[in-house]
Each structure stands twice: as structure tokens, then as C-alpha cells.
């Protein structure tokens, strides 16, 4: 299989599927550039070799065709700055402007295509659409780990048009190497820390992790479904009561498999969903009506830190509380610091999922953990042992 380090891109037009699905504010400024920054080494390798680069990505979830707020043109300035090259922009990813701009592209130049998802054929994995995209380049590089679990036109279908000329970029290579390390060279104890808003969407992950981990720490909004299912009073906290049985099954599964499942014992509660809300520390089982838990409490933090401190492998997805509110970010920050400290002692730590990544960046700890994954859903599916279409399309 071709490898980015050994491949000579000289004179080639290289079509790279990147994951530039970055958050933008109302003024269209990028509020977290991690995903773009991660793709720069791949882009630079190709440019330094003497190739040219055509970047394609999706952004957000446009419903019916083009939407201004999801236009990739908002990224041109930043990409140009970090790649140190001029960036041309094709305001449609398929068809005339893209064809013309791609053909006239010179070595050392970059062309950015408009949002792939402005065409509904992208998510359908449409072969005709994939062929149009493929016609723009001589070589296909998939560096979009964040969408590797999707069988879309630009992530999977397209690879068939590049037999012998398809490869992973550095982001993909790094992601796969680091996750493989967690899965196949696991040093024990192995602890998974799961948080975020909801249990739904993470059930399969939790169930699959049960067969791999020694400890499972649960925080974030999802903890209240577990607490409530066990009979605790959680007030107005986020609860999915249709998942009580699922939550109880998870706990039973953990017992059967010898996994220690750690639920919070206390919470920081608020009288409304607001940074300025009145705050109290409270037993997690005794949250008064009309109050809601927005963070894990100090006893929980102490206990979680102790488990983290004696782990040799850590996987973390999802914040421990509403860390976007300064008054409710303590739990997430303390856990992030504990993971960083464990890493310093030789523990291998992998952080994944949009919000956990935003959290470690916000606390300035990204350099102090072993690896920050850019692809939340893809990372978790890979950890579940599923075949990712974007990975298979290159490997097969
Ligand atoms: P997810 O995308 O499922 O990982 O969820 C991330 C979101 O969960 C973040 O925006 C957090 O603000 C939110 N979150 C974490 N803890 C809570 C909580 N206790 N109540 C409500 N939302 C929460």
C-alpha cells in the first residue's frame, strides 16, 4: 500500500479529503482550528514535493443545497495563513468552476472546493458524483478521520477511481496508529471516561467498551439517566427515561464482565440552565425538584482522580459537565488535569470527541496528553471494532 512518506507527489494534482468541519461563530470566525491545523503536515508534504493540492470537505449539516453559514469560503484566509500558500476557491465542488480551477492549478498551489454536502449525492455515496470529484485529481489522499465511518462519495466511493494512487494522509495514519495502540497494546488498568449530554448515541460504545476496559467513569448529563434508573432523585437534570432499562443492563453487564463502573456521588446543581444560576453542591441522589445537575461534585472529582491516577491507559470522550459555562467547568477541568498528570507519569491517554477536544484545548492541556483525536464518532466506532468505510476503501 502506498504511504504518504514514501510517495513522491511531484507534478501531481492531489485531491485530499480533509475534515474541515470546524465550529464557526455568527461572524463566521473559526472558534476551534484543531482540525485544520491537523491537516497542515499532509498539505505541506505534497507542496514541498512539488505537487498541488485540492482540498475537499463538508461543513455542518446543510439541508437543501447551499447555505451561506456553511460555506467553506469562510476558511480560505485561515488555511492560506497556516499552509503558507495562496488558496483559490471553487464555489461549487463539482462542475465547471472546479474543473477549470483544478486544471490550471500550478505546483505549490492550493484549491479549496465548496462544501461537499451542498450536493445531496455526497452523503448518498453516489458513484457519478464521486467520479466527477475524482476527475479533478491524479492522486487521492484521505485525511478525514472524522468522516471515515461514513460511506460517502468523497470518503469511500471515490477511492475506486484511484487504484494504486490512493493513500492515507498523516492525520489518518496517526489516528489509526494511536487508537491501535489503545486497543491492541493496552497497558492495564485501562480506564474509559465518558461524559457529554446523553446516553443515547453512546450505548453501543459503552457496551463495546465493557469488554475492553477495567474501569468506566461516567459523568456529564448522561450520568443522571443512570442515577435516576437506580431510583435517585435528579430534579430537572437531563434524563432519558426511555433508556432506564438500557442503563440498568449496562450496569449488569459491567458486573458480569468484572468492569468497575463508577458513577458520581455528588453534583454541582443549579436553579436554572445559566452560568449565573445559583449553585449548590448536592448528593447526586437527592437533587431537589426544580434544580438540575450541571457538573460533577468535589467528592466525585476526588474519586475519579484517584482511579485516573492508577490507570495505565485512558480513553476520554465527553465533558463531565456544562464546561461551556465557566461556573460549571470545574469537573471537566479537574479531570483533564488528572489525565495530563497521569500522562506525565507514563500513562497513555487518548482524548476524542469534539467537546472533549475543545475542553482540553480550552484548558491548554492538549500538549500534555498522549494523543488528541480529531474524529469523535469515527474514533469510537473504530474502538468498537467496526470497519470504517473510509479506511477500508484505501486498504482494499
Ligand atoms: P456530547 O456531544 O454528547 O458529548 O455532549 C456534549 C455536551 O454535553 C456539552 O455541550 C455539555 O455542555 C453537555 N453537558 C455536559 N454535562 C451536562 C449536564 N449535566 N447537563 C446538560 N448538558 C451537559
N-to-C terminal Cα separation, in Å? 9 Å
Helix and strand composition category: alpha/beta
Reading off the top of the CATH hierarchy, the class of the largest domain is best stated as: Alpha Beta
**Shape from CA axes?**
elongated
Q: Work out the count of structural domains.
A: 2
- Radius of gyration equals 22 Å
Largest sheet geometry = 6 strands, parallel
Name the ligand types: adenosine monophosphate
By CATH, the topology of the largest domain is Rossmann fold
CATH superfamily of the largest domain: Phosphoglycerate kinase, N-terminal domain
Low-confidence stretches: none
Number of helical segments? 14
Q: Into which percentage range does the β-strand content fall? A: 15-25%
Percent helix? 25-40%
At CATH level 2, the architecture of the largest domain is: 3-Layer(aba) Sandwich
Mean pLDDT: 95
Summarize the SSE layout with pairings.
Layout: E1 13-17, H1 34-49, E2 52-56, H2 76-83, E3 87-90, H3 96-103, E4 110-113, H4 121-124, H5 127-134, E5 139-142, E6 166-168, H6 170-184, E7 190-194, H7 203-210, E8 215-218, H8 223-229, E9 233-234, H9 244-257, E10 260-262, E11 266-270, E12 279-283, E13 286-287, E14 292-296, H10 298-309, E15 313-317, H11 330-344, E16 348-351, H12 354-362, E17 371-372, H13 376-384, H14 389-395
Parallel strand pairs: 1-2, 1-5, 2-4, 3-4, 5-6, 7-8, 7-15, 8-10, 9-13, 15-16, 16-17
Antiparallel strand pairs: 11-12, 11-14
Amino acid at each position: 500500500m502506498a504511504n504518504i512518506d514514501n510517495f513522491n507527489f511531484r507534478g501531481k494534482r492531489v485531491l485530499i479529503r480533509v475534515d474541515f468541519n470546524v465550529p464557526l461563530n455568527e461572524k463566521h470566525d473559526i472558534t476551534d482550528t484543531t482540525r485544520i491545523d491537523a491537516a497542515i503536515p499532509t498539505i505541506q508534504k505534497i507542496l514541498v514535493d512539488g505537487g498541488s493540492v485540492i482540498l475537499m470537505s463538508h461543513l455542518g449539516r446543510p439541508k437543501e443545497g447551499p447555505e451561506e453559514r456553511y460555506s467553506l469560503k469562510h476558511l480560505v484566509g485561515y488555511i492560506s495563513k497556516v499552509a503558507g500558500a495562496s488558496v483559490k476557491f471553487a464555489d461549487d465542488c463539482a462542475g465547471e468552476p472546479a474543473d477549470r480551477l483544478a486544471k490550471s492549478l500550478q505546483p505549490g498551489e492550493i484549491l479549496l472546493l465548496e462544501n461537499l454536502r451542498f450536493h445531496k449525492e455526497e452523503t448518498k455515496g453516489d458513484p457519478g458524483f464521486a467520479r466527477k470529484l475524482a476527475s479533478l485529481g491524479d492522486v487521492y489522499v484521505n485525511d478525514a478521520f472524522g468522516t471515515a465511518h461514513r460511506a460517502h462519495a468523497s470518503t469511500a466511493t471515490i477511492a475506486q477511481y484511484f487504484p494504486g494512487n490512493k493513500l492515507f494522509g498523516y492525520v489518518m495514519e496517526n489516528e489509526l496508529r494511536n487508537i491501535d495502540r489503545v486497543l491492541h497494546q493496552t497497558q492495564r488498568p485501562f480506564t474509559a471516561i465518558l461524559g457529554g449530554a446523553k446516553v443515547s448515541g453512546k450505548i453501543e460504545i459503552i457496551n463495546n467498551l465493557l469488554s475492553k476496559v477495567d474501569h468506566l467513569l461516567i459523568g456529564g448529563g448522561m450520568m443522571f439517566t443512570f442515577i435516576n434508573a437506580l431510583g435517585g432523585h435528579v430534579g430537572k437534570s437531563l434524563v432519558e427515561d426511555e433508556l432506564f432499562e438500557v442503563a440498568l443492563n449496562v450496569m449488569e453487564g459491567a458486573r458480569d464482565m468484572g468492569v468497575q463502573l463508577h458513577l458520581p456521588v455528588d453534583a454541582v446543581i443549579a436553579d436554572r440552565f445559566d452560568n449565573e444560576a445559583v449553585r449548590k453542591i448536592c448528593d447526586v441522589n437527592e437533587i431537589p425538584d426544580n434544580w438540575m445537575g450541571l457538573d460533577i461534585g468535589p467528592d466525585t472529582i476526588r474519586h475519579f482522580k484517584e482511579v485516573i491516577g492508577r490507570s495505565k491507559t485512558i480513553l476520554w470522550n465527553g465533558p463531565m459537565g456544562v464546561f461551556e459555562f465557566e461556573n460549571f467547568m470545574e469537573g471537566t477541568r479537574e479531570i483533564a488535569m488528572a489525565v495530563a498528570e497521569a500522562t506525565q507519569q507514563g500513562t497513555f491517554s487518548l482524548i476524542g470527541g469534539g467537546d472533549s477536544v475543545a475542553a482540553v484545548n480550552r484548558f491548554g492541556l492538549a500538549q500534555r496528553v498522549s494523543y488528541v483525536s480529531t474524529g469523535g464518532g469515527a474514533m469510537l466506532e473504530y474502538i468498537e471494532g467496526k470497519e470504517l468505510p473510509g479506511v477500508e476503501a484505501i486498504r482494499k
